TrEMBL record:
CDD domains: E_set_GO_C. The keyword Cytoplasm does not apply. It comes from Sphenostylis stenocarpa. InterPro entries: Gal_Oxase/kelch_b-propeller, Gal_Oxidase_central_sf, Glyoxal_oxidase_N, GO-like_E_set, Ig-like_fold, Ig_E-set. Residues 1-391 form the Glyoxal oxidase N-terminal domain. Keywords: Signal. This is Galactose oxidase. Residues 400-507 form the Galactose oxidase-like Early set domain.
Length: 508
């Protein structure tokens, strides 16, 4: 249900513990977690793992104990030092903050209950330029707050009428889409409306045109991403993409009648740094709800997972959307979408995906009902897949850059120059115009939204040929923490649209 790639090349994977079962038991020697059923005075014991650390290099998992608040439908993100910070959840976990890392072998969660100022179930977490986390929304929580330092309590919630105004009968404003703009303000989208908030002054800077057609947030569950930020463009514009979802009462209709309405098929872009922007709309090859919208290292986007009919929540969707779609944002309108080879596995409610350093996409999960069901129209899915975008075709390997990590700088400061060394097996005629260097912030992904996801194209200052096939690029680090919040990023060298394997870099 919840995943985040860590700088250790592990993926933290977790979901609800309310049902007290999973397919992985806590290892021998790790104490079971005591609990009591409502109204009971007798202790029971939960001996199952509700979180694991997944090693992307070995495909092995390490069970983790969730001892305190339930992280069901929570939020999360990576702190500047690589610590994974998880916030909120269900019932006893609604005000919990959890920590993992930053870089420890065999460590467990550090959990703190009753830390947040408001219940945060279906809330959204976004890292800020100073490295703090902004936390907004949740069921019946029409406010935002700032995640405190570890072990401290949140100071207060800030009432945010926008969330009250965008709530409807189906609560189609949960897990609001939040993106950090290139001016330091926060773009916040809920239901079908959006605005720009200054998180320091707490002032609304701007409101944007309503996006017609339907609802975009949970449970209608469309997708959203901040398009790649090109630092070669002196204006460093910020452009938002919002796609799919369903009509406002689709969830109620699915819940009460089990009629699953067609998911929305439109995809919309808005340049939020313009003074008077308007939504630009085009149509996807198929409708999609509960899908993931992932940035790829070459600047394309991937639409993957989800369904063609219905909404989020248990038993409320049908017709899995098996077909991934590649989107090229700089192509002319009408030519941007390309359908790829379909999967054979339904990835519907509670499925997730994330970009890996290899350029592959890690795809997992799907649980369209409570607990585990093996015999069902859409059984509980515990298989994991690696999806390879077209740029990983083996025929292109001779043109793929291979970063020499030992000869490359991994620590950078804002506005400074740093060098990356790489080789290309067939680099005949290679020049600076053939290359791009991108930095990707690995997001926390749940319920069809990748929180904190960000891709930057850096400015190449100098291209150096050491010998044929071996090269260096001197690159300008992002100019400020507004453009790139501090922390760990995946750095890719891209040769004519072909990324090589990334290395982790750290900026502060």
């Amino acid at each position: 249900m919840h995943i985040n790639l860590l700088p250790t090349n592990k993926i933290i994977v977790f979901d609800a513990k309310v049902y007290r079962t999973s397919r992985i038991r806590l290892p021998e020697g790790m104490p079971c977690v005591p609990f009591r059923d409502p109204g009971s005075t007798v202790d029971k014991f939960d001996c199952f793992a509700h979180a694991v650390e997944y090693d992307i290099e070995t495909n092995q998992v390490r069970p983790l104990q969730v001892a305190q608040g339930d992280p069901w439908c929570s939020s999360g993100g990576l702190a500047p030092d690589g610590t994974f910070v998880s916030t909120g959840g269900f019932n006893t976990g609604a005000k919990t903050v959890r920590y993992m890392g930053p870089n420890c072998q065999g460590c467990q969660w550090r959990e703190y209950d009753q830390i947040l100022a408001a219940d945060r179930w279906y809330a959204t977490q976004q890292i800020l330029p100073n490295g703090d986390f902004f936390l907004i929304g949740g069921r019946k929580s029409f406010s935002y707050e700032f995640v405190p330092r570890e072990g401290q309590k949140s100071e207060k919630p800030y009432f945010f009428p926008f969330l009250y105004e965008t709530s409807d009968f189906d609560e189609n404003n949960l897990y609001p889409f939040v993106h950090l703009s290139t001016d330091g303000n926060l773009f916040i989208f809920a239901n079908n409306r959006s605005l720009l908030l200054n998180p320091i002054s707490h002032k609304i800077v701007r409101t944007f045109p309503v996006l017609p057609g339907g609802s975009r947030n949970y449970p209608a569950s469309g997708m959203s991403a901040l398009l790649p930020i090109d630092l070669n463009d002196p204006n460093t514009k910020a452009e938002i993409m919002v796609c799919g979802g369903n009509i406002p009462d689709a969830f109620h209709i699915a819940e009460t009648t089990k009629v699953f309405l067609p998911a929305l098929q439109d995809c919309n872009r808005l340049v939020i740094t313009e003074l008077y922007p308007e939504w630009e709309t085009e149509m996807m090859p198929s409708g999609r709800t509960m899908g993931d919208l992932l940035l790829l290292p070459n600047g394309q986007l991937l639409l993957i997972n989800g369904a063609r009919r219905g909404t989020s929540a248990w038993w409320d969707a049908d017709m899995p959307n098996y077909t991934p779609v590649l989107y090229t944002p700089e192509d002319p309108k009408g030519l941007r979408f390309r359908e790829l080879k379909p999967s054979q596995i339904a990835r519907m409610y509670h499925s997730t995906s994330t970009l890996l350093p290899s350029g592959k996409i890690w795809v997992s999960g799907s649980n369209t009902h409570n607990t585990y069901k093996d015999v069902d129209k859409f059984p509980t899915e515990t298989r994991v897949e690696a999806f390879s975008p077209p740029y990983l075709d083996a025929n292109f390997d001779v043109y793929r850059p291979q970063i020499n990590e030992a000869a490359s700088q991994k620590e950078m400061t804002y506005g400074s120059l740093f060098e990356t060394s790489f080789s290309v097996e067939d680099g005949a005629g290679l020049n600076q115009n053939d290359l791009k260097v991108s930095m990707y912030f690995p997001p926390f992904t749940t319920h069809g939204f990748s929180m904190g996801q960000r891709l930057l194209f850096l400015k190449i200052n100098e291209f150096i040929t050491d010998t044929v096939g071996f090269y260096r690029v001197r690159v300008e680090a992002p100019p400020s923490n507004v453009i790139a919040p501090p922390g760990y990023y995946l750095l890719f060298v891209v040769h004519r649209g072909l990324p090589g394997k990334a290395m982790w870099v750290h900026i502060q």
